[in-house]
TrEMBL record:
InterPro entries, per database record: ModA, ModA/WtpA
The keyword Cytoplasm is assigned to this record: no
Family, similarity comment: Belongs to the bacterial solute-binding protein ModA family.
Keywords: Metal-binding, Signal
Organism lineage: Bacteria, Pseudomonadati, Pseudomonadota, Alphaproteobacteria, Hyphomicrobiales
GO terms assigned for molecular function: metal ion binding; molybdate ion binding
Gene3D superfamilies: Periplasmic binding protein-like II
SUPFAM superfamilies recorded: Periplasmic binding protein-like II
GO biological process terms, semicolon-separated: molybdate ion transport
Gene name of this polypeptide: modA
Protein's UniProt name: Molybdate ABC transporter substrate-binding protein
């Protein structure tokens, strides 16, 4: 068959070979195979997408935690993000500061404070009812610079003598409301030496900074949480006598007006998982 082409002499043209039956069959088979392959690929791609957390639907969770968790939590929260598909922005501060920030209405989804502070926030309606999750507790200790002579702290009386004899003592700043500061205030009152040690007390913003002050030689003794021993190099600890020992309890709660309730519940559940409990134990905490 000849089809005329403009610009060519009459009687010449381009020959078109129309498909034969055999060629037509091959053509249809090829198209059919290609179409099936495309459909199959699209199907499996949709399964893969469905099984993968979508960043577009990831929840953004704001967490406030105690300063003593600032070294431990980043790695753990990364694991949570991978398993849940959600994103966590964490901030760390002394417990009293966290409590104040929640009271003032800072946009937070989960806050970790002490047991008593959690109860107070519940009473004020700042936390979602029934969202209390106890994470861990940690005891207190006396820090000394590594290699220094260890004081006798075998009894309350021995502890009293050691504190009176020390040239300087690093303690938590009461204005920050941290667990270490609250414990130390009560301890000094119980021992009856509040006024005697006031002049030689060095106030530090957090428990970790208490340990750091001792490591740097800026204070002879420090009273802080035992978990900070694993965070700060160059220090040792001497156990407090059982009769004056106490524990700082860390409790998570979900903020009442959060828009991320389900994601926040996932996070607080994760914070009591076996993996987190093991990490807490390895760093001097006692999981609850």
């Amino acid at each position: 068959m000849i089809i005329s082409t403009a610009g060519r002499p009459h009687g010449t043209g381009t020959r078109v070979n129309w498909p034969t039956k055999r060629n037509d069959s091959v053509f249809r088979h090829s198209v059919g195979s290609t179409f099936s392959a495309i459909i199959s690929a699209a199907f499996y791609s949709s399964l893969l997408i469905a099984a993968t957390p979508s960043p577009a639907h990831a929840a953004e969770i704001n967490l406030l935690g105690p300063a003593s968790f600032r070294i431990l939590f980043p790695k753990l929260l990364t694991e949570f993000e991978k398993s849940s598909g959600n994103n966590v922005t964490a901030g760390y501060a002394p417990l009293g500061v966290i409590t104040e920030r929640v009271i003032k209405g800072e946009p937070v989804d989960v806050a970790i404070v002490s047991g008593k502070q959690n109860e107070e926030l519940q009473k004020q309606g700042k936390l979602l009812a029934g969202s209390r999750v106890e994470i861990a507790q940690v005891g207190f200790t006396v820090f000394i610079k590594k290699g220094a002579a260890k004081p006798d702290l075998s009894s309350a009386d021995a502890l009293k003598r050691a504190l009176l004899a020390a040239e300087s003592i690093a303690v938590g700043d009461p204005a920050r409301g941290g667990g270490a500061s609250l414990y130390t205030i009560g301890l000094m009152k119980r021992l009856g030496i509040s006024e005697e040690v006031k002049a030689k007390s060095r106030l530090e913003p957090s428990g970790t900074e208490i340990a750091e002050a001792v490591a740097k030689g800026e204070a002879e003794l420090g009273i802080g949480v035992a978990s900070d021993l694993s965070l700060v190099a160059g220090i040792e600890s001497v156990a407090l006598p059982a009769e004056v020992q106490n524990y700082s309890l860390y409790v998570a709660g979900i903020i009442a007006d959060t828009k991320q309730v389900d994601a926040a519940k996932e996070l607080t559940a994760f914070l009591t998982s076996p993996a987190v409990n093991q990490a807490l134990t390895d760093n001097g905490f006692e999981p609850r």
